[in-house]
Automatic annotation (TrEMBL), chain A:
InterPro entries: AA_ABC_Transporter_Permease, MetI-like, MetI-like_sf
The protein's name in its UniProt record: ABC transporter permease
Similarity field: Belongs to the binding-protein-dependent transport system permease family.
Keyword annotations: Cell membrane, Membrane, Transmembrane, Transmembrane helix, Transport
Superkingdom: Bacteria
Chief location bin: membrane
Provenance organism: Herbiconiux daphne
Organism placement in taxonomy: Bacteria, Bacillati, Actinomycetota, Actinomycetes, Micrococcales
Compartment annotation: Cell membrane
Membrane topology: Multi-pass membrane protein
UniProt domain ABC transmembrane type-1: residue ranges: 15-209
SUPFAM superfamilies: MetI-like (SSF161098)
Automatic annotation (TrEMBL), chain B:
Keywords: Amino-acid transport, ATP-binding, Cell membrane, Membrane, Nucleotide-binding, Translocase, Transport
This protein's record includes keyword Oxidoreductase: no
Protein name: Methionine ABC transporter ATP-binding protein
GO molecular function, one term: ATP binding
Domain (ABC transporter): residue spans on this chain: 4-246
Organism: Herbiconiux daphne
One Pfam family, short name: ABC_tran
Taxonomic placement: Bacteria, Bacillati, Actinomycetota, Actinomycetes, Micrococcales
Acetylation keyword on record: no
PROSITE patterns in the record: ABC_TRANSPORTER_1 (PS00211), ABC_TRANSPORTER_2 (PS50893)
Length: 219, 350
């Protein structure tokens, strides 16, 4: 217990690091996933920018990369991380790789949620002369906003989960903290403290997400 | 010059699977719709009605043939020109297709924003439209808080926002109960009469045609098999599919099985009198039969009213002196069309 008290400042720092990693990954991965998801949705045969070729390519890419377990993906993507962000280790590398992995995962969630928008609604917008880009921005996304918010909340939790392995490439955060000071030092109290903080973060975000979704759905 | 003019229009959809056969949804259709018309399009499911109207606002493109809207060929227009065309053509739908994420007010404002209407004009225009459809008090509500009839009225307000000259209504009352249907039809009638909007209304409900339409086209398997004034088509349907449609609301000459039932219950000579020209008075016919000393009984049929013109078929059982009946009938042939179904064998009127 004394150890834990001594470690409190480190726990605080680890929490901040986790929030930092998760927030940036959610930002980049969220944007990337939104774009790829929109790409999947709009190019799907019969949709606004219907294109069998583009849809096929996007579909294969997402299907290939999405199921790779993150810890393997992390190792495999290291050369790419070096190329793009200049380093293969540390928080920057983990944020890059997390964003990439999240992009694939989120794109499917975005695609599925956009597909819930009734084709008739899009037809109504076309019938008043709205352009395709206007329809996507002012109609498709707002119509699917409620489920999208819930989808992103779900992704947030998944990213917190994935970020725990940051330690493998020299990154920080609660996962690293729990392994380093709890597991390796045979100090379960420290591990459990990290777990507790993670639970609190996840609960808070889940609550926020539900509240936002309810607000956009107005039900 | 017709407002909408279709010439030899064909629309073929590619097969859904590789190696399947393409679907010809519209097959060499030619049709002229004049400004101010309320043009009904009827036909069974899959006849191609929806596809036909979707060609008019270019939601689908024709495979061959030409469509002129207000004298402009729309086949081959660029996407930006098509958007301008659509601003002049409103559309309402069976499932209303309102934007659920927007308030009633914003639903109606949407086409105006698309049309880049100046902001200070959007407000008054939306208010005016909502008051026209009687929903001023629902402006801030969301569609899911409205009844079906109210949703369709929002749909109508949205479709009329940019003051289009043409309104396409695809099964616009099919999801509504009879009373609400009448409300919406009355509103559409006002749209036509007060704003002079030409309405093209697809329906499988004869009621809608009867109360609203001035002209009608009957579609069957992608073709327009019959078209013309509603009264003409309904009182003298030439094609089998039109006859089947008309028979759902208008009882015609009894079929052999119906005739057998009638013969069991009524004796005498059974004849069907067909009133087709809109002016013949039933009273006049009955009076002449009575004057000839013929006893008659109305056994089957009905009379319909389309915009003040009367038509229908009445089947009578006549009893009396056979030569007198013959004489009376030949006298009546000048006023009504008579189908002689003969004398009941068991109990002849003599
Ligand atoms: N996008 C499409 N792709 C392929 N086939 C289509 C498409 N749209 C319509 N069809 C086919 O074209 C034919 C006519 O369809 P349409 O929807 O115009 O009929 P409808 O008369 O409106 O029927 P309903 O009364 O059921 O609405 C049908 O055989 C239909 O399967
Ligand atoms: Mg249809």
């Amino acid at each position: 217990m004394d150890d834990l008290i001594q470690l409190l400042p480190k726990l605080g720092q680890a929490t901040v690091e986790t929030l930092y990693i998760v927030a940036l990954s959610l930002l980049f991965g969220g944007l990337g996933g939104l774009l790829v998801g929109l790409g999947l949705y709009t190019t799907r045969p019969g949709n606004l920018y219907s294109s069998r070729v583009v849809y096929g390519i996007l579909n294969v890419i997402v299907n290939v990369f999405r199921p790779i377990p993150f810890i393997i993906f992390l190792a495999a993507a290291q050369p790419l991380a070096r190329l793009v962000v200049g380093t293969g280790i540390g928080n920057t590398a983990i944020i890059f790789t997390l964003s990439l992995a999240a992009t694939f995962g989120i794109s499917r969630i975005v695609e599925q949620n956009l597909l819930t928008v009734q084709p008739g609604v899009i037809e109504a917008a076309r019938s008043v002369g709205a352009s395709r880009s206007r329809i996507i921005l002012t109609l498709v996304i707002p119509e699917a906003l409620g489920p999208l918010v819930l989808g992103y909340t779900f992704v947030f939790v998944a990213i917190v989960d994935m970020s725990a392995v940051a330690g493998y490439v020299g990154g920080g955060g609660l996962g690293t903290f729990a392994i380093q000071y709890g597991y390796r030092q045979f100090n379960p109290a420290v591990t459990w403290a990290a777990v507790l903080v993670i639970i609190l973060i996840v609960q808070a975000v889940q609550f926020l997400g539900n509240w936002l979704a309810r607000k956009t759905l107005r039900r | 010059m017709a407002l909408v003019s279709l010439r030899d229009v064909t629309k073929t959809f590619p097969p859904s699977q590789r190696g399947g056969t393409p679907v010809t949804a519209i097959d060499r259709v030619s049709l002229d719709i004049e400004a101010g018309d309320v043009y009904g399009i009827i036909g069974y499911s899959g006849a191609g009605k929806s596809t036909l109207v979707r060609l008019i606002n270019a939601l689908e493109s024709v495979s061959s043939g030409s469509i002129l809207v207000d004298g402009v060929e729309i086949n081959g227009l660029r996407e930006s020109e098509l958007r301008r065309l659509r601003l002049g053509i409103g559309m309402i739908f069976q499932q209303f297709n309102l934007f659920n994420s927007k308030t009633v007010w914003n639903n109606v404002a949407y086409p105006l924003r698309v049309a880049r209407t100046p902001k200070h004009e959007i407000g008054p225009r939306v208010d005016e439209l909502l008051s026209f459809v009687g929903l001023s008090d629902k402006a801030k509500n969301y569609p899911e808080q409205l009844s079906g009839g109210q949703k369709q009225r929002v749909g109508i307000a949205r479709a009329l926002a940019t003051s289009p000259r043409i309104l396409l209504a695809d099964e616009s009352t099919s999801a509504l109960d009879p009373e609400t249907t009448q409300e919406v039809l009355a509103l559409l009638k006002r749209v036509n009469e007060e704003f002079g909007v030409t309405i093209i209304v697809i329906t499988h409900e004869m009621d809608v045609i009867q109360t609203l339409a001035t002209k009608v086209a009957v579609m069957d398997a992608g073709r327009v098999v019959e078209h013309g004034d509603v009264f003409d088509v309904f009182s003298r349907p030439r094609e089998l599919s039109s006859q089947r449609f008309v028979s759902t609301v208008v009882r015609g000459v009894p079929s052999p099985s119906e005739l057998a039932v009638l013969r069991e219950r009524h004796h005498g000579r059974i004849v069907t009198l067909s009133f087709r020209d809109g002016n013949t008075s039933q009273g006049d016919v009955f009076l002449r039969l009575a004057q000839a000393g013929i006893e008659f009984e109305l056994v089957y049929g009905g009379i319909n009213d389309i915009r003040g013109q009367v038509f229908g078929h009445l089947t009578l059982a006549l009893r009396g002196d056979p030569p007198a009946i013959d004489a009376a009938l030949s006298d009546l042939t000048t006023t009504v069309e008579i189908t002689d179904l003969g004398v009941t064998s068991s109990g002849s009127g003599a």
